[in-house]
Amino acid sequence: MPREAGWGEGESFQPSRRSPSRFRRFAAPSLSHKGRGFFAALLLLAACDGGPAVVPAKSDNAGPFPAPDRPVAPLGGPRWSTEEARDRLNEAGEVMNKAGITKGMTVADIGAGEGYYTIRLASRVGKDGRVVAEDIVPQVRDALAQRVVRDRLDNVSVKLGDPANPKLPDNSFDRVLMVHMYHEIEQPYEFLWRIRPALKASGEVVVVDANRRTVDHGTPPRLLQCEFAAVGYKLVAFDDMPSAGGYMARFQAVGARPEPKDIRACRLAS
Asked: Rounded to an integer, what distance in angstroms lies between the CA atom of residue 92 and that of residue 68?
């Protein structure tokens, strides 16, 4: 059973004088994180993320949205494991189980890549469900589309998104899945802001990532929670996911979507 969100509650975000950093993108997850329960995860948190996430007094703006006040890992990394090796760990099965993905759901696979999750999501949601596989690289999108046709996955659509906008239809998704790619997003606040209308009333954004610095191809959980909260999401569950190389965090949108000018960037306390 997923744990109810507990870490980070009651923390205050203090102003900071540090100016934002501007970096580029990446995605190379690994299976090095071997969490052993929630308290072990908290110990790793303290060692990894350097303390609570805070909101600076001022944020540099990228258009109407704040730029992330932390490194953004560059896009494109080596293939980190084979599908067979991942299946031996039951990676996708555990992620889908803990994310509550069931028959008949509509799920978005963001940053779908070669389609490891897309193929398994299609089987899980069944003929009455739907999977939208999105990627921002045209060649990757095209290769995945060919795989979908070859495997005759009639419940899968493949689409090309923008770096800051996955271009999902409104009020359509029970789950939006982002596996080992959140740290690659150049404009996370705009990206999360544009996802909100695509969620159904009970829909969730599910993030799987490694508990390490974004520059090292992960996202510290407290930073993740702060960035989601800045766009009006609440954390509803957090689980260790050693089979998927890190942790899983599940979020729901609450209240009105904030105006872009009112969103303030987070950073990790030094």
From this structure: 29
Count CA atoms closer than 13 A to 19's CA, side-chain side: 3
Nearest CA to 24 out of 212, 220, 187, 227 is that of 187
Compute the distance between CA of residue 91 and CA of residue 174 in angstroms, rounded to an integer: 20
State the sign of the Cα–Cα–Cα–Cα dihedral 130, 123, 178, 251: positive
- Helix 38-48 with 221-230: angle, nearest 10 deg: 80
pLDDT attached to residue 66: 92
In order of 26, 77, 255, the CA distances from 165 in angstroms are 17, 21, 21
- Residue 163 tokens read as 């770096």
Q: Which residues is 179 bridged to in the sheet? A: 208
Which residues face 199 on adjacent strands? 173
Mean pLDDT per 10-residue section of the chain, whose length is 270 residues: 40 33 33 37 36 48 78 69 90 96 98 96 98 96 97 97 95 97 94 97 97 91 97 97 93 96 85
Question: What is the reported pTM?
Answer: 0.77
CA distance 252 to 113: 25
Question: Residue 166 and residue 159: Cα distance in Å, rounded?
Answer: 9
Q: What is the dihedral sign for C-alpha 41, 77, 175, 90?
A: negative
For residue 146, the tally of other CB atoms under 10 A from its CB is 12
What is the pLDDT at residue 270? 61
Answer yes or no: are the C-beta atoms of 209 and 224 closer than 8 Å: yes
Please tell me the distance from the alpha carbon of residue 161 to that of residue 177, in angstroms, as a whole number: 14
What is the Cα–Cα distance from 83 to 199, expressed in whole angstroms? 29
Tokens of 16: 């900071």
pLDDT digits (tens, 9 = 90+) for 129-150: 999 999 999 999 999 999 999 9
